[in-house]
Amino acid sequence: MSSYNETLVEDMNTNQMEEALVIFKSICGSGYFMKTRLVLCFTKMDIFRRKLARGDHLFSDHFPDYNVMPGATPNDFEAAKTYITERFRAMCCENHAPLETYYINATSTDEVQGMWESAIGKVRQDAKEFSSGSSGTATEQVYLSDSAQRVLAIKEHLPAPGY
């Protein structure tokens, strides 16, 4: 979410969040992912919160259709988070299992691990239900972004707490 006010390197006229929405819409609309549980993981929530609090960039300057909720400030963290989440949720159609949404901070390996374990558990449950309802077997396919893979790899090499 922290890229709400940034543009693409290759196209300085395209907002990174708007580009992510276009890509997510193409994934949701793909026949390959019908009836598939999708996991949406928003990262760098701590950075997003700091950027909004700093107030250098009004959230509404980047999303003209964003309306500040009554009682909220123009850069209200919860309101902006809800707005972006709902924009992504709107891309999914009824052909998908419920969209799983996670919010994690940039440097929290515990949050990444918790999200990973929860998502894998749900995928495994889906696979179990699929295989029990048919004669075939289900295959688990889970993909992590490069940054999430790096965080998990780093966590595996950190000393245990108290060392």
Automatic annotation (TrEMBL):
InterPro entries: Gprotein_alpha_su (IPR001019), P-loop_NTPase (IPR027417). The keyword Metal-binding applies. PROSITE patterns: G_ALPHA. One of its GO terms (biological process) is adenylate cyclase-modulating G protein-coupled receptor signaling pathway. Pfam families: G-alpha (PF00503). Keywords: GTP-binding, Metal-binding, Nucleotide-binding, Transducer. One of its GO terms (cellular component) is heterotrimeric G-protein complex. This is G-protein alpha subunit-domain-containing protein.
